[in-house]
Amino acid sequence: MTIRVVVVDDHPVFREGLAAVLGATADMTVVALAGDGAEAIDAASAGGVGVVLMDLNLPSMSGVEATARIAALAEPPAVLVVTMVDDDDTVLAALRAGARGYVLKGSTSDQIAAAIRTVATGGAVFGPGVAAQVLALSSNRGKARSQDGLTDREQEVLALLADGMSNAKIARALGLSHKTVQNYVSRILEKLQLADRTQAALHARRSELT
Prior knowledge:
By secondary structure, this protein is α/β, with parallel strands linked by helices. Helix content is 52%, strand content 14%. It has helices at 12-23, 37-45, 63-71, 88-97, 109-120, 130-140, 152-162, 167-174, 178-192, 197-209, and strands at 3-8, 28-34, 51-54, 78-83, 101-104, 125-126. Strands 2-1-3-4-5-6 form a 6-stranded parallel β-sheet, with helices on both faces. Helix 1 links the parallel strand 1 and strand 2 (28-34). The chain is elongated, with a radius of gyration of 18 Å. It starts with a strand and ends with a helix.
């Protein structure tokens, strides 16, 4: 059986390089390339797709949202996340959205191909180190929520934001990527139903006084 694959990544060099490697694999055919979430959904909706390789940090629409929309299709393909994320919340968000597996971009082509075969046949797969993170977070996620519905990490980001730190400074302070901090700030604003960073900082200050 030939597995029909869609490769989604906003970096053309990585996207095309991975497509070339998979295209040379005997039991796989790359049927589409996508640079953002909307293109990924269109490709997955075309039918006949077995697996969508999904990057999480995409422009306009996050890979998590694109995954959720693909999972909601009448006949959804399996979604395998392939990314360099460095925060645990995003891993769990992708899995909750419907992804069947997760591998790091640093994985070898053989490891990625093996993961594709696994999710294409209904299995689940996690890259090295990720399974332990997922298990730990799954067992403790109920304890990690604050009164505002924020995780401990989101509380840390909010506190630094309230101190007037930029995303770049927060990233350096917490050892995260700039994109990851942007994702955290977006989730904080969404959860607290706030319009911008200024409102978030005011919210944090008010919380300190109560």
